[in-house]
Amino acid sequence: KAGVTQTPRYLIKTRGQQVTLSCSPISGHRSVSWYQQTPGQGLQFLFEYFSETQRNKGNFPGRFSGRQFSNSRSEMNVSTLELGDSALYLCASRWDRTEAFFGQGTRLTVV
Amino acid sequence: GIQVEQSPPDLILQEGANSTLRCNFSDSVNNLQWFHQNPWGQLINLFYIPSGTKQNGRLSATTVATERYSLLYISSSQTTDSGVYFCAVERRGSYIPTFGRGTSLIVHP
Description:
The structure holds two protein chains of two kinds. Chain A is mainly β. Chain A is built from no helices and eleven strands. Chain A has strands at 5-7, 10-13, 19-24, 31-38, 42-50, 53-57, 64-68, 74-78, 87-94, 101-102, 106-110. In chain A, strands 2, 4, 5, 6, 9, 10 and 11 form a seven-stranded mixed β-sheet that branches. In chain A, strands 1-3-8-7 form a four-stranded antiparallel β-sheet, with no helix packed on it. In chain B, the strands form two sheets. In chain B, strands 2, 4, 5, 9, 10 and 11 form a six-stranded mixed β-sheet that branches. In chain B, strands 1-3-8-7-6 form a five-stranded antiparallel β-sheet, with no helix packed on it. Chain B is globular. The N and C termini of chain B lie far apart (40 Å).
């Protein structure tokens, strides 16, 4: 079966803009989580959506938001981009609180 | 929150050598996974191992939950094993995964 699909793979944005990233989970999986990976901070948990509801949230400012649709696809939005938001954004899919499977990531560069 | 420490931070091997990577965590956990991050950034699942021992080819893993550590063994390493290995745990009752800082492995031919 198809794996976790993230789009786009690469993105370049200007400071102050906003960006939307997309994640399509494995078919049948109801949980989608988002992570930010930077060289300085490592892999940090952003939030988790389960059945269209945010179930868990990490310690990120309100500029980072997300949502999940009825087909379990999820989007993540970052508003008013800052240089420090440059990172690899990873999405993970799982059935519930079980083994997580990751997508290939979206590499965001803010200039 | 839970603390996750991986060691060693860096490892350089010759092809064919064996290695052991360690993951220590500071609290009881529901879940533990090992991942290999390839050069393109994708996290590849290696093991889902909250407790016990599992083997998959040249790789095996053991988690001793009562002593709060997990080990990943790589035998007869190959150049394609190069990359960063991450351990991720979920503290019991939390279900929010916390990643270690990873072990960067380089295997020379």
